[in-house]
């Protein structure tokens, strides 16, 4: 009985050993096959990097501001008698916008003019009597003072009537009307915004480290988002004399021609300041850059060694230092060499060492001054 048991145990152990050995060899073969597996190449487009001389520029965020911008308001209280403008219209300096009711002032003016005429006649009469020695010179002085007071009173009422005619203080474009016919206005009540749009200001801030590079008269390029996003050229007209203690930035103001009214006060714009010097960069399409919190990188194409020692066409990830941007292009300052073949599209699906298949039939935009079709 015990002998039979021993034989069975030996047989079972032998079976398990053979089975385990077979499975072990199968697992080893699967691991070796997985280690030597090469995923199919990813389709990408590439460009050969080359050195270019770019002007040194500084990018900033700007806000458009009017050279002259006010909200026309009532100077004196009164009832709106006439509205002489339409919302959104262009007006010239001195053009009448609103007239307030002046019937009471005109009645006062008629009385004051009568009083002035009487004072003048009285002055002429007394002047003749003084020359004849009939009245004292003091009476002449009193009559002259009364005449001057009457003339001043007429001028005061005329000024009041004139101040109830609200006029455009400068040429510009009106906003939306804020008053109605027959409305009573108090002193200071708004009537209509008025903005002078040509020329126009763009205010932006630069770090204090770059403030010394700003020069009055230096060139700037300004572009706004939207279908008419072409860049407008201008000049730096003023540099603030203090540094903002909260942001450590210096405020800079540029002046631009705005003949077509493309820029409006309050708009957000991108500002490119021309420093004046040039620096060598490797210009790449913006689509070639992989942006990440730990650093910006590109994928460089080349021949790599595979796991089995064979060469294959693949990519390596290369971290780079970026400079400014120009149209569709981004300038690379360091991390690449001229002649490196860089992936321009399809980088999002790549990893370090991935195999690639280059197909440059269709290339991404790479123009320093693009003009989109829907512009």
Description of the molecule:
- 24% of the residues lie in helices and 39% in strands.
- It has 375 residues and is α+β, with helices and mostly antiparallel strands.
- The strands form four sheets. Strands 2-11-14-13-12-15 form a six-stranded antiparallel beta barrel. A five-stranded mixed beta sheet has the order 17-16-20-1-21, with no helix packed on it. A four-stranded antiparallel beta sheet has the order 3-10-8-5, with no helix packed on it.
- The longest helix is centred in the first third of the chain and has 34 residues, at 2-35.
Chain-wise SSE layout:
Elements lengths: L1 H34 L6 E7 L2 E16 L2 E5 L4 E6 L6 E2 L4 E5 L2 H30 L4 H27 L1 E3 L4 E3 L9 E2 L4 E6 L4 E8 L11 E6 L7 E12 L5 E8 L11 E18 L11 E9 L5 E9 L1 E6 L2 E6 L6 E5 L10 E3 L17
Helix pairs in contact: 2-3
Task: Provide key terms for this protein.
single chain, 375 residues, alpha+beta, OB fold (Dihydrolipoamide Acetyltransferase, E2P), Helix Hairpins, 3 domains, 6-stranded antiparallel barrel, 39% strand
